[in-house]
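Request: When convenient, would you put together a sequence paired with its structure tokens?
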Amino acid sequence: MLTITVLVENSDGKDLCGEHGLSLFIEYNGGKYLLDMGATELFAKNAARLGLSLADVETAFLSHAHYDHAGGLSRFFAENPSAKVHLQEAAAENCYSERAGAREYIGMPRGILREHADRFCFVPGAPADTGNAARDDSSAGTSVAPGVWILPHTTPNLEEQGRKAHMYQLEHGSYQPDDFSHEQSVIFETEHGLILCNSCSHGGIVNIVKEAQRALQKDVYAVIGGFHLKGPDGVDSMAVSPAEVEEIGRQLVQLGVKKIYTGHCTGQPAFAILQKTCPEAVQALHTGLRLEF
């Protein structure tokens, strides 16, 4: 049994406030997991209202190194004395976005990796000898428990995605287009198929589904997370054309995905197109939503 509760998301829930961020409380085969901690302490307040104890979390994951997923890390460490936070070895406090010619820091809380060094578990990404080259074997994934996988990106040339999104990493004093090597998927095996969680899907949700299928040699039943289709003016804008959004929906269905739970950075216009394109599959995420597989 897999149960996923949305502790925080952009949309409010019943008696629960949302924010621009994402945090998922996950119960799987008797274990308790946490994926991301939102932008602030709000995820913890909502967990308490929902009767979910962060102290019971045994393993946590950080999907990528952005503030709207890492902002609540200190609060998590205060409430949970021992669980490790698994993140990609490429994750660092070096993420920026560019708008109107100005760069803004959008990374993890500064100093968090040093202050809580004992709480982080860095997970190897794509093998160094192939860089970000595509691979066809399951060694690209890391198993943290039976049926629970961490998967890095193996799709090549993702720095082009970073360039288009105006996202950069500061490396050795130089801003380089983000290749999202700090982003990871968390995957759970169920009787239905793979349940794939990727909070922002900067690498492209279609690419990510293909990565999961190649690595684990199983079908993806459901995807959960944002698709980063919102435009520079926020969730009421769109960064791609309507035709591109329709094609994403069609490709996900062609790949065998049966359930698509999305929100956060997908944006309202793109969500409406996805729902029209795949009416039987697409459902909106919101704070307090509980999913069972």
User: Anything to note?
Assistant: Helices lie at 42-49, 67-70, 73-79, 112-115, 159-164, 205-216, 242-254, 268-277.
